[in-house]
């Protein structure tokens, strides 16, 4: 099983944290998922969020949209020292992911599927970098485009973007995705009922 798969075992819904849904974030909000993506913010906001969660919860940072940590070797060493519960890095940049992987972080490449050319370019980067997982955006389209992806031998797929209903989550998981990431807090609770992914 992949390192991402181990973290998500039994918890296929990932909580996506943005400034729009973290202002009133409470400890009880962070008990539904085993992994949360911090998609924007800075080291001060991340410290507040991580402190609210149980020790068993893992976090991934979208480093392209994060302030206070540079995507270089010193930045990754600082990140490990300040936030030992940050297990992975999310990025669209090959260089960032390559270095993060060398520094033993789990890596997730964000693949924007807006047209066939963006898909082709993204697949090239995936081949070059070899991330631990790929986040397909917008995730809601995954059931329709999964047949265009070389899923055999492909890194595990996480889908994010425009996922609003329990049906969206189930359809995406049935289409072969390992997990979904969503900022909709009510969908985080689905981890309690998605027994087929345990």
From TrEMBL:
One of its GO terms (biological process) is glycerol metabolic process. InterPro entries: Aldolase_TIM (IPR013785), GlpP (IPR006699). SUPFAM superfamilies: GlpP-like. This is Glycerol-3-phosphate responsive antiterminator. It comes from Candidatus Caldatribacterium californiense. The lineage of its organism: Bacteria, Pseudomonadati, Atribacterota, Atribacteria, Atribacterales.
């Amino acid at each position: 099983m992949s390192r991402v798969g181990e973290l998500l075992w039994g918890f296929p819904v990932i909580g996506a944290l943005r400034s729009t849904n973290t202002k009133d974030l409470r400890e009880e909000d962070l008990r539904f998922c085993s992994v949360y993506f911090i998609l924007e913010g800075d080291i001060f906001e991340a410290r507040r969020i991580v402190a609210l969660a149980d020790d068993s919860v893992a976090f991934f940072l979208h480093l392209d949209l994060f302030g206070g940590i540079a995507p270089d070797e010193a930045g990754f060493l600082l990140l490990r020292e300040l936030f030992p519960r940050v297990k992975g890095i999310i990025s669209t940049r090959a260089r960032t992911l390559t270095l993060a992987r060398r520094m033993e972080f789990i890596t997730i490449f964000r693949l924007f599927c807006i047209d066939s050319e963006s898909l082709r370019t993204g697949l090239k980067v995936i081949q070059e970098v070899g991330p631990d997982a790929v986040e397909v955006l917008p995730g809601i389209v995954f059931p329709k485009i999964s047949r265009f992806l070389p899923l055999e031998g492909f890194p595990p797929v996480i889908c994010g973007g425009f996922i609003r209903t329990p049906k969206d989550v189930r359809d995406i998981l049935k289409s072969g995705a390992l997990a979904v990431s969503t900022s909709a807090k009510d969908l985080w609770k689905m981890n309690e009922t998605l027994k087929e992914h345990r």
